[in-house]
Amino acid sequence: MNPEQYEILDRVLEQPVLKRYLFPDPVVIESVELLRDRKSFICRVRSSDGAEGVSIGHPFISLESYPVFVNALIPFFTGKDARDLDALLHEVAESQVKKQGVPFCVQLATLEFAILDMLGNIAEKPAGLVIGDLLNPEVDIYLGHLLPQLRNLEPEVSLGMMDESRIETQAKAIKLRAGRGDNLASDIDNAPGRTEKLIRMAREKFGDDYVLMIDGNGSYSVDEAIRIGKILEEHNFYWYEEPVPWDWYEEQKIVEQAMNIPMAGGEEEFGMHGFRYLAGNEVFQFLQPDIFYFGGMVRTMKVARMVEAAGLQISPHISGGGLGFLYMLHMVSVCPAAAEYHEFKMFSTKDPNGTIIPVESKGGPFESVGGTIRAPKGSGLGVIIDPDYIKTHTTCAN
Amino acid sequence: MNPEQYEILDRVLEQPVLKRYLFPDPVVIESVELLRDRKSFICRVRSSDGAEGVSIGHPFISLESYPVFVNALIPFFTGKDARDLDALLHEVAESQVKKQGVPFCVQLATLEFAILDMLGNIAEKPAGLVIGDLLNPEVDIYLGHLLPQLRNLEPEVSLGMMDESRIETQAKAIKLRAGRGDNLASDIDNAPGRTEKLIRMAREKFGDDYVLMIDGNGSYSVDEAIRIGKILEEHNFYWYEEPVPWDWYEEQKIVEQAMNIPMAGGEEEFGMHGFRYLAGNEVFQFLQPDIFYFGGMVRTMKVARMVEAAGLQISPHISGGGLGFLYMLHMVSVCPAAAEYHEFKMFSTKDPNGTIIPVESKGGPFESVGGTIRAPKGSGLGVIIDPDYIKTHTTCAN
User: Fold this and answer.
1) Among candidates B149, B105, B64, which has minimal Cα distance to A75?
2) Smallest Cα distance from B269 to chain A, Å
3) Cα distance between residue A353 and residue A8, in whole Å
4) What is the DSSP letter of A116?
């Protein structure tokens, strides 16, 4: 614990995020709706002046926790001035202690995305630009998809699939998966020596200079994490992510101190105080708040600023499916201390019912050229969601 | 961080909890049902041999997170051997990282209570005795109810209400409330000097020898927590609970080191690793896992054993309403390192729809005599819930 470092971070946390000066008049949230079609959820907010914002929920967590949206978030946000977003998010995230966790934050993020869409529409700016400045108009991606394939298929087969995605996107970095990914520190691999083989084969296949990361998803005890980490050092990996269970922060620090390559983590952390600890103690060099799991972009911006103050880097996590890539692009476009590469799980906009979400970009196509995607240019979230698709979703009961 | 202490706790965590030897034959969980009537939830499990267990859900959190019961817990537990309960709970609680938190644990606890009811019915023992030995056949209570009254009414009025409950139950200890209870470290009281007044008045009213605790529910910053704590020391308080926000464990340790009276906390902690930290570093002297919020009695028993190994005490937290008092009695009856007093919020068995839950004790009435309640004696959870009441609840959709 370093009190001086925490003082610096606490001052950072006091700084406002939403650019309130963009909104001279109140933006009263007249209605908040959660719409549902089986496993798919959409949030729509409307202001008393008729402005509207729409967001698509999380592809697989919205279904687990939607009652808290209906029972707690709708009553809390209805009638409030959206210009108070910083304070509203702080109060609802920190004071409702029995609701906290990733499932709650996912609902909060869904609502925040819709509010930022509405505010961006009012200010005629992309959602990112109502909370930050355009620091990264182009976002370099790393491929973070194919998680089950990288663990369960033959290493050469899964690396072949990854290579196809690399060719398609021209991505300059790829993330592999280590161990069984069970968050149980079981030290069990899906086959003996499988992870070592995957590491070696990937380095051979993609060449000495290609950027490779790897994610353990909590597979290892401290000793095994360090043993695998030493192999990663030999193969010049760019970062080593979450080898021990996510909340083993003291043990993670032991691994970090034993490593000569940077470490990455934080995607399951839902607490601001938790990220203050992670940044203040350099538990990881790359911090990875998930834009959904951590409750949205305003909160993630606070983490980014702490990361910057601590001299570290941020690379926000995002799940595949839904509009995850879009939220990632908005966030990274305005992120201070952004890492060089950001998580990308392909432009797969399927909703959890298997329907391609019909979205149209307001400002040029979303595409990866040379492994780089340009930040969205249209107002709000930068997309128009087909109204007929929205109509397939109806008001969600609790 | 103390590696030797953690080694001791890790050995404790490896010890089995469920008394498997009581069940020579498999107890296959043939069905798991979540039944619902508006805001009220009931869990029913049945074995393939026709044994049955029933539990009443949490009075106000079940409604927030029930989809995770339907979508995740029912598929996970159906078809499993209930004798593997320790391992099943470990796997489902630790590996489903995106679901973790109090709302998930509440669902897990609801299911575990029903399984323990079923196992107790099979073994013809109270639920507590299938996971532990009868260490505390009589449970001394402290009054922990009247939370909003103690914060919002005039101090003399709320203390008068508490005194009525004291007379009714003959409880030998009472818990007050400090600050606004917002978990925001706001240092704001509901009226200037109100908490100091409440502390002084309570000591005068109940006398020098009466046992008084107080709970801050995260009201204070470190400095204000210590200032209030010094006043509590002067007035000889028995414990000082959660003055700073629940997850400010480093800051809590600073307060703890500044105090000459014991501290209590942990009710919002949902992680086993979190309790290992709290016990291993003596962040509080009294640890208070909530039997619902922490995911049930087997997990709470593991905390109790860590607490015992660390030379601390445990006083499980429980919400008012529903059958909370019953779960508390089962747990405390078999708890090692149990504190002298345990949380009691009156025998209020109202469900969230306002209906008194019609339960009949299988073994003598539940009553507080001299501030002491005898542990339940009947098999399983020790109660028969009126079948007609259960019938008002129907299968819960997701």
Assistant:
1) B64
2) 10
3) 46
4) H
Q: Where are the domains of chain A?
A: 3-124+388-395, 130-383
Cα distance between the two ends of chain B: 43
In whole angstroms, what is the distance from residue A207 CA to residue A250 CA? 35
B65–A103 CB contact, under 8 Å: yes
Q: Has residue B162 got a pLDDT over 90?
A: yes
Closest CA to A68 of A29, A109, A21: A109
Query: Is A68 an 8 Å CB contact of chain B?
Result: yes
Nearest residue of chain A to residue B293 (CA atoms)? A98
Of A68, A106, A103, whose CA–CA distance to B63 is shortest?
A68
Query: What is the count of residue pairs from A and B with beta carbons less than 8 Å apart?
Result: 104
CA angle (A239, A240, A243) in 5-degree steps: 165
Which residue of chain B comes nearest to A180, CA vs CA? B95
ipTM for the whole predicted complex goes beyond 0.95: yes
User: Which residue bears the tokens 């009856």?
Assistant: B333
Cα within 13 Å of Cα(A31), Cβ side:
12
The reply to whether residue B104 touches residue A100, judged by beta carbons under 8 angstroms, is no
Chain B residues with CB under 8 Å of A71 CB are 63-64
Torsion, CA A327, CA A328, CA A332, CA A338, rounded to 10: 150
pLDDT in tens, A291-341: 999 999 999 999 999 999 999 999 999 998 899 999 999 999 999 999 999
Which CATH class for the B3-124+388-395 domain?
alpha beta
Q: Is pLDDT above 80 for A1?
A: no
Question: From 3.20.20.120, 3.30.230.10, 3.40.50.360, 3.40.50.1360, which CATH number describes the B130-381 domain?
Answer: 3.20.20.120
**Residue B2: per-residue pLDDT:** 81
3-class secondary structure, A184: coil
Looking at CA atoms only, how far is residue A38 from chain B in angstroms? 9
Of B50, B64, B147, B142, the closest CA to residue B110 belongs to B64
Q: Which residues contact A387 (CB under 8 A, 6 or more apart)?
A: none
Architecture of the domain delimited by A130-383? Alpha-Beta Barrel (3.20)
Tokens of B64: 């927030």
CA A344/CA A321 separation, integer angstroms: 10
Could you check whether B3-124+388-395 and B130-381 share the same CATH topology?
no
pLDDT over 90 at B397, yes or no: no
Closest Cβ opposite residue A64 in set B71, B91, B247? B71
CA–CA gap between residue A371 and residue A227 (Å, rounded): 32
Task: Kindly identify which residue of chain A lies nearest to residue B248, measuring between CA atoms.
Answer: A273
- Is 90 exceeded by the pLDDT of residue A194? yes
A181–chain B nearest CA distance, Å = 9
Say which of A64, A97, A102 has its CB closest to residue B246.
Answer: A97
Pairing between strand B138-143 and B313-314? Answer: unpaired
- Supply the pLDDT for residue B394: 98
